Each structure stands twice: as structure tokens, then as C-alpha cells.
């Protein structure tokens, strides 16, 4: 399982904070059960947002690529020296 990115953590956390505040202010609940339901639903919403943030594409190197063979034969080291430069 891949690690969460910084963007996923940030978006999820911001979603939890703002959705909790919005739901608490809009519902005007004062009971512990209502607050617990709002907190759990905000956490689920934050997790949903964090999981839907697109992850960066990882670069995968193809290992099954055939190796290109040389068509030329190697030149011996003795043949590369010039005989006129003596």
C-alpha cells in the first residue's frame, strides 16, 4: 500500500476541520451524541477526500526491454594507434 502524499494529508485534514466546524455551526447541537456523530462523519469525509486526491504517477522502468546488440565488432586496441605518429 503506497504512503499518503503531503497533498492527501493536507486536503484530508483541512476537510475534517472545516466540515466539523460547518456541521457544528449549522446543526447547533449541544448533545454529546450529536457531536460524536458530526465528528465521525467529518473524519469519514476527510478520509474520502484524502483518498480521491490523485497520486503522482510513479516512473516505472521497463525491465523486459530487449537489449540492443552491437552490429559492429570491437576494434582491438593495437589497431587504433597510428603507425605514423612514432
Class by SSE composition: mainly alpha
Largest sheet: none
Along the chain, the helix and strand elements come as: HH
Beta-strand segment tally = 0
Number of helical elements: 2
- The low-confidence runs, each spanning 5 or more residues with pLDDT under 50, are none
Strand content: under 5%
The mean pLDDT is: 82
Computed CA radius of gyration, to the nearest angstrom: 31 Å
- Terminal Cα separation, in Å? 66 Å
Task: Provide a quick synopsis of the model.
The chain has 86 residues and is mainly alpha-helical. The protein is 50% helix and 0% strand. It contains two helices and no strands.
Topology:
Elements (H helix, E strand, L loop, with lengths): L5 H22 L4 H21 L34
Description:
The protein has 86 residues and is mainly alpha-helical. Helices cover 50% and strands 0% of the residues. It has two helices and no strands. It has helices at 6-27, 32-52. The longest helix has 22 residues, at 6-27. The chain starts with 5 loop residues before the first helix and ends in a 34-residue tail after the last helix.
Amino acid at each position: 500500500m503506497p504512503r499518503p502524499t503531503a497533498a492527501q494529508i493536507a486536503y484530508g485534514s483541512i476537510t475534517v476541520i472545516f466540515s466539523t466546524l460547518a456541521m457544528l455551526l449549522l446543526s447547533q447541537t449541544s448533545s454529546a451524541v450529536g457531536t460524536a456523530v458530526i465528528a465521525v462523519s467529518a473524519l469519514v469525509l476527510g478520509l474520502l477526500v484524502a483518498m480521491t486526491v490523485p497520486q503522482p504517477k510513479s516512473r516505472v522502468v521497463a525491465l523486459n526491454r530487449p537489449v540492443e546488440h552491437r552490429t559492429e565488432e570491437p576494434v582491438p586496441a593495437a589497431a587504433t594507434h597510428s603507425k605514423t605518429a612514432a
